[in-house]
Batch of 4 targets.
Target 1
Amino acid sequence: MKTYKRTPNQTKIIEGMDKVYEKLIEFKKKMNSELVILKEDKIVRIKP
C-alpha cells in the first residue's frame, strides 16, 4: 500500500470538513430532520 503525506493545507481542509460534518449532524438532530446520504449507490434517508 502506498503511503501519502498531506500538505498543511490539505490537513486544514480535511479538519474543516470534519467540523462541518459534525455541525450538520447536530443541526439535523436539533431540527428533527432527515439526513440524506448515498450508500452503496442508493439514496438512503436516516432519521435522527
Note: The two ends are 37 Å apart (CA to CA).
Target 2
Amino acid sequence: MLHGMADEALDGHTPLLGAVQETMLVTLHARATAGDADAARLVAAIDYDFARFERHAGPTAVFHVLRSNAMDEWTRRFLAERPHGTVVELGAGLSTRGDRLDNGTAHWCYVDLPDAAEFRRALLPDGERRRTITGSVLDPGWADEVAAEPGPYLFLAEGVLVYLDPVDVRRALSIVATRFPGCRIALDTYGEWIIAKPRGPLAGMAADLVWSCEDPKALEEWDLGLTLRESWPLSRPDWAVRRGLSRRTRAVLAGINTFVPRKMTNTRVNLFSVDAAD
C-alpha cells in the first residue's frame, strides 16, 4: 500500500495542474492499466476524466510502461551497488517507484514544480527517507536540498526533458553534472518525427513536445562530462526488461518492429554517467 496510507485517505483529490504537469496522469494511467496496484489506487482516488486515455491503452500505454520499467531496472542496479544512496526523480509527478523498489535504506527525492509537488504531497506524503522538493529543474536551488541527502546519486528524468527547448535541457543537465559529479542520470529521448507529430493521449494534451534528439550520444559533446553508458529503443527493450513482459506485450512490440518505420519509433531510454571531479 502506498506509503502505508489507508485507501480512504486518498479519496477525492482534484488535480489543478499546469499543462506539462498534467501529463503525469498519462503515465500514471498507463501503469495502472498494466497492473500496477499502487497506480490503480491513485487513479481511483483522483477526480479526473481518465476515460480520455482509454482508447490509447494499446501501444502508447505499452511505451509509457516500458519507459518506466527501464528506469526501474537502472534503479535496481544502482541500489544493488549503493544500497544507502539517493534516487532523485526530476519532474517526479506521481511516481510510485519508491514504493516498488525501496530497500529499507535508500533515500528518495522527488523534485517538481509547485502545483505538482503540492499534489504529490497530498497523495504521497513524505516520510523518513522520502522528500518532495519544490523547484524547477532549471533552478539550481533544488540541488541544495538534494545535496543534504547521502550520496552517491542516481537521477531519473522520465518524460520531463522533452518539454524543454535544447538550451534549457542543457541547463538542467548542467545543474546535475556540476553539482553532483560522479552521479548517473537516466533520461528518455525522442526523434524529430515523434516531436513533430505526437500520438496517443499526448496529442490531446495542452503541453507541447519540444526537444528532439535523434542520437543521445550527441549529449557527450555538450562539455558536461556526460558519458553514454546504455541506450536502447523502447521498441527493442533490454533483456532484463524484456523478460518481464507479457506475451501480448511482446507481440505488440514485434508488430511495431516489423511494420512501423524506425523514425516513427525513435524513442530511447538512456543512462549516462557524469565524470567525477578531479
Note: The chain is about 35% helix and 15% strand.
Target 3
Amino acid sequence: MLTLPIRTFTAAAQTLPPVDSAVHAFMTQYHVPGMSIAVTHHGKLVYARGYGYADTLQQTPVTVNSLFRIASVSKPITATAILKLVEAKKLSLDDTVFGKNGVLGTTYGQPPYPENLRKITIRQLLQHTAGGWTNNGTDPMFSHPQMTASALISWTITHQPLENTPGAVYAYSNFGYCVLGRVIEKVSGMSYEAYVKKAVLQPCNITNMQIGGNTLAQRKSNEVIYYGQHGEQPYIYNISRMDAHGGWIASAKDLANLLIHVDGFPAPADILTNVSVTAMTTGSTANPGYALGWAVNPYHNWWHSGSLPGTASEIIRSHHGFTWVMLCNTRTDNSFFNDLDGLLWKAVNDPKTPWPNTDLLTAH
C-alpha cells in the first residue's frame, strides 16, 4: 500500500466541488498519488485540474499539463491515424495485412503463411477480431522485451498461430495494434510516432504528446512518476515498443483537445470526415460493443480505458456533448477501474453542475 504525503489537490485558479469532491474521495480510497482530469462541453474545455503529486518524494504537484502514460488509450489514436490514411486513399479498411497481396507483404516471419493469417484485414485488427494473440498470459507484447517490434511480429506469427478464423471472434489484442503501427509506417513512409504527430496531433495544435520511455531514467520532461501497488513494478516493460497499442504519454488537457476533434459533434471541426467517424464508432458483428479503437454502446457513448503497472487512464465521449479525460499514476484492482469509469458521470449528468462558460484550453 502506498503511503502518501498529506496533500490532495494542487493549487488551481478554479474549483468545482461536484468534481473535486468525487476525485478527492477516489484518490483517498485507492491511494492515488497523482491525478489529472479535463472536461469539455460542446467543444470547449470547461474544467481541467491536477490533483496530488507527480513525484511524491519531491512533492512536485500534478498540473493539467503533466504527462502520464495513457496505456491502451493509445488505441483510439492509432485508429484515427489509420483512418487518415484511408481518407488519403493510401489504404482500405478491408486490405489484407500479411502475404503477397497484403500491405506488409512477406516482410515478417517465414512464408508461405497459413491461410487464416493471409485473411486478416486492417479492419479486423482495429476491431480485435483478427483471430488470436489475445491479451492474456501469452500476450506477445509482454514477452521478449529485448526484441524490436519487427522481430516480435516475425516471432509471433511464426510461433503463435491464430486460434480462430479472422472476423469470427472478438479477442482483445495488443499485438494486433502493434501490427497496425507497422502498417502505418509502411504506408506513410514515416515512423509511427512521426506520422501520428503530423496527421493527427498537429492539426489539433498538440505538441507535447510523445511515445514514452521504459525506465525511470528515461522519464520525459514534465512526466509524472508511476507508483505500483501490491508489488507491481511500473518500470519493467518495453513501453516504447508498445507505441501503437499503449506507448503514448499525454496530458489530460491535450487528450481533451484531441477528443473534441474526433467526437462527431459540429464544433470544432473534426479532423476526420463524417464517414470515418461513423466507421470508427460502428461495432463489429463479433462484438457490437467494440468498434475501431473505441468501446461503444447503443446510447452513442464512446470510451476507452488504459492500464499498466502504475498507470490508469480513461477517455469518455458522451452522447450529450461532454467528453472527459482521467489520468492516474497508479492502479489497483477491478473496483478501482469500475469507480474510475463512473467517477464524473454524476457531475456531467447533473444540469445544476456549474461548469464555467469560458474555454480553458489556454489555462495553465
Note: The first strand starts at residue 34 and ends at 41.
Target 4
Amino acid sequence: MAGQQNTPDVSHFQRIPWCAAHLSSQNLIIETPHTRLPKPDHEEALMAQTLNRPDAIAAFAVFYTPPPSPSDLLEEVGAFLTLGPMLNGWKGICHGGIVMTILDEVCGQLAAINRARGVVKDIPMMTAYLNVKFVAPVRTGTTVLVRAWMARREGSRKYFVEGVMEDEGKRVLARAEGLFIQLKEKL
C-alpha cells in the first residue's frame, strides 16, 4: 500500500475483514485524519477530543487513491468510522445530528487533504450548506463507510460535494450534498 500510517485507528480497520478488503488496493493512502489529532488551541476539538473516545467514535481513518499528477485535485475520499453507544439518540441508533456531523467531516476531508497536498490554497474552507437525507437508521456498535466526492467546482472557491454513509452490506444509510466555500483569507 502506498501511504499507510501505522496508527491505532488504521490498525483497527485492518482487523475488520470487510474494511480490510476495501483497504487492500495497491496505491491507496490510508491515514488518521488530522482533525482527529488534538491541538493545543482546541481547534477541531469536536472530532479530536469530544468524539474521539472508545464509546463515541472509537476509530476513524480516511483513505484515497492519489490523482495521477501531484498537482491534480483529489476528487474522492473514503472513510471508516466505528460508532459507539455515546452517539445514541435512541438505544442502538446514532443521533441524526451526529450522522450529519460525520458526513460534514468526511466531505470536508476533500478540502483538508487537497490543502495538505498543496493543491489548493492554505486558507480555511467552511460549509455553506449541507443537506442530508436519512435513508435508514445508523446503528451504533458498528462500523460505517462514508464516501465523499467532488460533484463540481465554481471558480476557485466553491466546491460542491456529495457523500453517502453505508453499512457493511453496502446499504445506503444517509446521503448528503453540500457546498464548501474557501474563505478569502485566513481566519
Note: The beta strands are 3-4, 29-31, 57-64, 76-83, 88-90, 93-94, 125-134, 142-154, 158-166, 172-182.
